Structures are given as structure tokens and as C-alpha cells.
Amino acid sequence: MKKIILLLALAFSAFLAQAQNAVTLKAGDTAPDFKLKNVDNKEVSFGTFKDAKGYIVVFTCNTCPYAVGYEQRIIDLDKKFRPQGYPVIAINPNDPEASTADTFAKMQELAKEKKYPFPYLFDAGQKITDQYGAKRTPHIFIVSKTSKGNVVEYVGAIDNDPEGNNPQKTKYAEEVIASLKSGQKPAVTQTKEIGCTVKRKAKA
Questions:
Q1: Which of 189, 177, 138, 139 is nearest to 55 (CA)?
Q2: What is the 3-state secondary structure (H, E, C) of the chain?
Q3: How far from the centroid of its chain's Cα atoms is residue 10's Cα?
Q4: pLDDT tens across the length of the chain (204 residues)
Q5: Which of 5, 65, 116, 186 could tie 111 with a disulfide, CB 3.0–4.6 Å?
Q6: Which residues pair with 149 in a beta bridge?
Q7: Which residues in 41-70 are b (16+ Cβ under 10 Å) and which e?
Q8: How far apart are CA 154 and CA 138, in angstroms?
Q9: Cβ neighbours around 163 below 10 Å, total
């Protein structure tokens, strides 16, 4: 009987953990730090960017058509805002067993081919993906570095133009950072993320 109760308790704990992992961070939440391997084999964390005012954390991957479509826009975000104190940190949330084109070696190939100016990090075990509650690729989290720690300011899409053909697009990420730089809170703190679902290996 004790063994059955123990098994039930463990199963319930696992269920709670999964439920918590399913919750996406929102504006005002603390942004969890991390130490993940970059494609250059060096570990990267928030602390890597000592002079940063904040961070543009993007969960993206090699394979999703949306991620591919946003690739140049992510590069442009880093080129524009890293000198202003808001570097891009890209994290691949896909399990490489579930998406074989998202292995670390394939990430290295892509980063080299596209000359990524930002780190592209491998999230072994999808731990950081779960802590942030990233659901799709790409899924963006804009973070401020404050006296109280790293705080999420915006979660969602980079803009409202996944097809990349609307010159009148609303550039959510750029508008958020413009607000933060002016010392104001963003008018929009959450939008619907646009992209492919995070790939996970089937449970045994």
C-alpha cells in the first residue's frame, strides 16, 4: 500500500512539474538565468553581456519555416540593438532526437553559414525552454536588467508579419525596446507567438 501511495505521489509531482513548465512567463516575471553551450563551445549566460541594459531572448531553430523566415530579422535586431545595450541571445528549444536537423552540429553549421552575430545556444534537456515556457519557434522574450534582477518586459512575436511582405507591419520588438530606452513601460507586453511548435521526443 505504501508503495502505491509513493508511486501516486511521484506521479502527481511529475504532473505538477509538467503543468508548471507549460506556463509561459509574462511581463513582470523574473527571467531565469542560464548557462548554455554556444555554437563556439563556450558557455553563455546573461552575465556574459556585462554592459547590457537588457536582452532579446529568442527561442528559434534550424528547421521551422517561420524561424527561417524570421532569421534575417533576428540578425537585424541584434545588429541594431546590441550596440544600444540589448543583444540577441538565440536558444534552440527543439529536442535533437525529435528534430534531427536541430542537433548541435547542425546548429554550428547554420550559425557559420549565416554568420550569426549573436550566440546560438543548445538547451540540453529543454530545461530553459520549460522555465520560460517557450511554445513556438520563434518565441521572443525581451528582458530588462534592473536593480531587482532580470525582468521580463515582453513576450510573443517579433512582429505581425510572418510572411515578411507587409511594409506596414507592427514591429513589436522594436517598439518595446524604444519604450524601455525612453524609461517607459511598453504599451504592449504580450502578443500571440507565431511559429512551429517546440519539438519534443515521444514519451516512453
A1: 177
A2: CHHHHHHHHHHHHHHHHHHHHCCCCCCCCECCCCCEEECCCCEECHHHCCCCCEEEEEECCCCCHHHHHHHHHHHHHHHHHHHHCCCEEEEECCCCCCCHHHCHHHHHHHHHHHCCCCCEEECHHHHHHHHHCCCEECEEEEEEEECCEEEEEEEECCCCCCCCCCCCCCCHHHHHHHHHHCCCCCCCCECCCCCEECCCCCCC
A3: 30
A4: 444 443 343 343 333 334 335 699 999 999 999 999 999 999 999 999 999 999 999 999 999 999 999 999 999 999 999 999 999 999 999 999 999 999 999 999 999 999 999 999 999 999 999 999 999 999 999 999 998 899 999 999 999 999 988 889 999 999 999 999 999 999 999 999 999 999 998 876
A5: 116
A6: 146
A7: eeebebeebeebbbbbbbbbbbbbebbebb
A8: 14
A9: 8
Residue with cell 546590441: 82
